Amino acid sequence: MLKNITLHVVSDYSALSTAAAKLFATYVAANPVGTYGFATGGTPEGMYEELCKMSESGKLDLTKITAFNLDEYVGLAPNDPQSYAYYMENRLFNRTGVPMANRHIPSGIAQCPNTECNKYEELIHKCGGIDLQILGIGTNGHIGFNEPENTFAGQTSHVALAEETINVNARFFDDINDVPRYAISMGMQTIMMAETLLLLASGDSKAKILKEALLGSITPHVPASVLQMHRKLIVIADKAATKYI
Ligand code: F6R
Asked: How far is the CA of 115 from the centre of ligand 1 (A)?
């Protein structure tokens, strides 16, 4: 049984992108000065494209929001095309006019990653927390870069990528050896503090883990399983990703 979870099953990736963008736009219309959390990776690309189109046609105004991203690779500068900062600039922020001063992503090139983590966590708190956080899910159940572990990661931290994550994310790089081994990621506690969570999942490769995350026991070996305890979790997933639910 899906306790407090609102699950929207849509036909395919295109429908997921439209549904997620529409839902996001509803939240922004209700709170144009809100704080919104963003994910990167393949899943939200279509949603961001929809948001850009909505913004370009005057149906969405992101010029007053504050943005916080989930994570960044350690070692990549913001102008590196593989960095998440670069991804966000090009896929959403520049095209929708999110103010420069309101775009927050952990720095991948901070002298001291641990200090950067603490600063990032403090900044989220200073801004009053996140109103709506977008999430994707890794095939190993990670959320952000909170990888399967023996305990749940708390706050924003400097983390090592799991072998599976390195392998899966290699598709975005020329060579698997180019995939960074470390990242700065919001912790599960940071993520759980957001008012509303919007989890997106698409495709067969996510079907098994989505079932474990939403219906399985809550365990740090499937970090996404803790989302079951959130007071407001909305899931938009396509038929392929929900075939075992
Ligand atoms: C990205 C992130 C990751 C991805 C996850 C799924 O900022 O936090 O947790 O959401 O790895 O990635 P895709 O969407 O590429 O399958």
From this structure: 24
